[in-house]
Amino acid sequence: LMQASGRAFKVLIDPELYLAEDFVLLGELHKAPDLAQTMLVVCHNPGLADFAWRVTGSGDLEARKRMELKYPTSGMAVIEFDTPWAQVRWGSGRLERFVTPSTLVEGVDDLD
Asked: 37-83, pLDDT tens digit by residue?
């Protein structure tokens, strides 16, 4: 990702997040420094899907419906917050986009 973007950024690899539950992910988000404007969280379901659904309270309604129906492998939720990381609460995020394999490749079915 750094090579493709031409930018360098800090990478934190935390094995505890591998199968973390949604509340663990929220706790980790609260630890992020305010200086960090963007974060990419990569982990496994069901924790990530539960986290994305619970932390998102507004935004693209159609994307929220698709995300609730199925958060497939390689899915990505782009969520914005208007507060510092430490103040993020359930329902405080705004879903900007929900990208899945089927939105990128014709003929791929996310429901398989």
From this structure: 888 888 888 899 999 999 999 999 999 999 999 999 889 999 999 99
Q: What percent of the chain has pLDDT over 70?
A: 95
Question: What is the C-alpha end-to-end distance of the chain, expressed in Å?
Answer: 27
- What's the pTM? 0.85
Cis peptide before 72 (omega within 30 of 0): no
User: In degrees, to the nearest 5, what angle opens at C-alpha 88 toward C-alphas 86 and 94?
Assistant: 145
Asked whether 73 and 44 are in contact (CB, 8 A), the reply is: no
**Contacts with 34 (C-beta within 8 Å, 6 or more apart), sequence order:** 84, 85, 86
C-alpha to C-alpha distance for 13 and 36, rounded to whole angstroms: 16
Residue 62 per-residue DSSP state:
H
